Amino acid sequence: MPQDEAVIGRTGEVLIGTRGPAGPGEVLVRVRGGSETFLAWSEEPLPVGATVLVIESRGCREVGVIEWVDPLDALGDSAEAG
After folding, report:
1. Tell me, what's the pLDDT at 57?
2. Which pLDDT score is estimated for 61?
3. Which of 22, 36, 24 is nearest to 65 (CA)?
4. Residue with the larger pLDDT of the pair 24 and 80
5. Which of 8-22, 38-52, 58-72 has the lowest mean pLDDT?
6. In this structure, are strands 34-41 and 51-57 parallel, antiparallel, or unpaired?
């Protein structure tokens, strides 16, 4: 199946929690000027509302994801404290 390279490196939000190796969840990813949903696989279970980073396309609207914390958010906290 062809990969969807446009989604790799994009962030999204978990709509239906992933179950790690037991099965996929669903994520909403900001891509192509809008938002699209994909089946999402992760190594560890991820809860609804978690922010994720798409690390791979598995073809036909399926992606591999990891939990994501934007490193720039930490810089914002430091600037506010100073």
Report:
1. 95
2. 93
3. 24
4. 24
5. 58-72
6. unpaired
**What is the C-alpha separation between 40 and 68, in angstroms, rounded?**
14
Q: Which amino acid is at 24?
A: P
**Residue that has been written with the tokens 């891509």 in this structure:** 31
Q: What is the pLDDT of residue 36?
A: 95
Phi, psi (5° rounding) for residue 38? -140, 150
The span from the CA of 23 to the CA of 31, in Å, is 24
Give SS3 for 44: coil
Q: How far apart are CA 33 and CA 22, in angstroms?
A: 32
Angular region, 40: left φ>0, alpha ψ -120 to 50, beta rest: beta
What separation in angstroms does the CA of 65 have from each of 3, 56, 81, 82? 15, 7, 32, 34
pLDDT of 19 above 80: yes
Residue with tokens 């190594």: 43
